[in-house]
Amino acid sequence: MNTSTSQSLFEKAKTLFPGGVNSPVRAFKSVGGHPLFFAKGEGAYVWDEDQNKYLDFCCSWGPLILGHAHPHVVKAISETAAKGSSFGAPTRLENQLAELILSNHHYIEKIRFVSSGTEAAMSAIRLARGYTGRDKIIKFEGCYHGHVDSLLVKAGSGLATLGTSSSAGVPQAYANETIVVPLNDIEALEAAVTQYKNQIAVIAIEPIPANNGLLLQDGEFLRYLRQLCTREGILLLFDEVISGFRVGFEGAAGYYGIQPDVLCFGKIIGGGMPVGAYASSAEVMAHVAPEGPVYQAGTLSGNPVAMAAGLAQLSECLRPGFYEELREKTDYLVRNVMAYAQEKAYAFQMFSIGSIFWVSFDGVKPIRRMDEIDERGVQRFAPFHRALLERGVYLGPSGYEVGFISQAHTNADIDFAIAAMKEALDVAYAH
Ligand SMILES: Cc1ncc(COP(=O)(O)O)c(C=O)c1O
After folding, report:
1. Which residues are tagged catalytic?
2. What is the residue-wise DSSP string for 290-343?
3. I need a labelling partner for 129 at 20 to 30 A (CA). Which of 188, 229, 321, 358 fits?
4. pLDDT attached to residue 95
5. Which residues make Cβ contacts (< 8 Å) with residue 192, sequence separation at least 6?
């Protein structure tokens, strides 16, 4: 496999960007080798700068639920851009996208568009603090909410601990406002809300945690969270940046039938353009400026080109059977790869929900918490990933990342992936 052009582009990039990339996980550090530089994407496929073709299960880390360059999305983007790409003033397209979302998502009444998932999470946290008049927040170990200062925090030791920063540059004073608890641990949550009674503004969770493996939660645990928040006057924040419009149009809230107080979105909502959003009841959203005292703004918020892309993509998602078809393709992939792993007695599991899947190399089921992932198993991901690349299949370059199936993946594509994954498993378990 010749990837020399990608390699020389990466050498150049290292002189321009820290680590040669504009977002760390792209650097291929955990799988070795150098990142591939992509030149083109169409449907379920991408082509690198050396003209190698790959079946893509990264899908830009989730936004591309229709695959690459879907004709409706491309048309919407180009027609809108031709009329001017930004005004810094309201446009009809913002109304249209908001109406499409709000009339089909019954857990929210008002929405505010921003430009990334990070911005959405940051703004949702500020809103929760402004609304409750409380400062502390609870997050879960293994959930990622973007690179927001107060959320770049990992657990200390003990049951319900104040966090310690997981990045240089985050003041300890910020980390002190964040309590980090393990997922699926009612005892730790009860201890935290008792210890910090009337101080906690919000409990933030990825209801479908998909940033450190796919840590599928028990519906009972999520329902308990809802009750706990109601009991304690705490807002429940569902970070649906990945799960939103992915496991169904109404995301995890709809999937589990749980009403969160605040939701944040990203990825799919922008049709591959930079969009995020946070949303809640009209009553809570009335606290956002200029209606209320919680300040939040953005030069490119509600950008027309991005709104048009989001409209085109989400309109497709609303087609009857859209999500069922995606789920069936995912189930088919998982069932077949798992059957092979079982036949070969490999300690391997594939977890999935909707069109999200994760390959896990430690054979234990279920895995609901980050500390239940066996790191030695994850080391098998590097040879698995390499073997897949050599067979024309692209997964995100980290064993902790999930894969995504898009509408553009055909049954034949999935069969191709199954064959490649079987061979890649043999390679991974030969090490
Ligand atoms: C659950 C979740 N929240 C927030 C973010 C941050 O989104 P962005 O990368 O668009 O800033 C991500 C990114 O992957 C995410 O998965």
Report:
1. 144, 239, 267
2. TTSSB----TTTT-HHHHHHHHHHHHHHTSTTHHHHHHHHHHHHHHHHHHHHHH
3. 188
4. 98
5. 138, 159, 160, 179, 181, 200
Which residue pairs from 290-293 have beta carbons closer than 8 angstroms and sit at least 24 positions apart in sequence? Answer: 292/130, 293/130
CB–CB of 316/407 below 8 Å?
A: yes
State if residue 413 touches ligand 1 by the CB under 6 angstroms criterion.
no
401 Cα: distance to centroid of ligand 1 (angstroms): 12
Is 240 a pocket residue for ligand 1 (Cβ < 6 Å)? no
What lies within 8 Å, CB to CB, of 227 at 6+ separation is: none
What domains can you pick out in the chain, each with its CATH number? 4-69+320-430 (3.90.1150.10), 71-317 (3.40.640.10)
Q: Report which secondary-structure segment, H or E, holds 64.
A: none
Residue among 205, 258, 188 nearest 230 (CA): 258
Q: Is 118 in the pocket of ligand 1 (CB under 6 A)?
A: yes
Q: What is the pLDDT of residue 376?
A: 87
Q: What is the pLDDT of residue 364?
A: 72
Residue-level pLDDT at 159 = 57
* Tokens of residue 247, six digits: 């496991």
Query: Tell me: the pLDDT tens digits for 49-95?
Result: 999 999 999 999 999 999 999 999 999 999 999 999 999 999 999 99
- pLDDT on residue 245: 98
What is the pLDDT at residue 431? Answer: 66
Residue 223: per-residue pLDDT: 98
* Ligand 1 and 266: CB distance under 6 A: yes
Q: Residue whose CA is closest, atom 5 of ligand 1?
A: 146
Q: Which two tokens stand for residue 267?
A: 């990825």
Separation of alpha carbons 113 and 275, rounded Å: 7
CA distance 199 to 183: 21
Minimal-distance CA residue to ligand 1 atom 7: 117
Pocket test for ligand 1, best of 115, 123, 208, 211 (most atoms within 8 A of CB): 211
Ligand 1 pocket, 145 CB below 6 A?
yes
Confidence at residue 158, expressed as pLDDT on a 0 to 100 scale: 58
Give the per-residue pLDDT at 68: 98
pTM reported for the whole predicted model: 0.97
Cα of 82 to ligand 1 centre, how many Å? 29
Ligand 1 closest atom vs CA 143: 1
CA pair distance 179, 150, nearest whole angstrom: 10
Counting as low any pLDDT under 70, the low residues of the chain are 156-161, 431
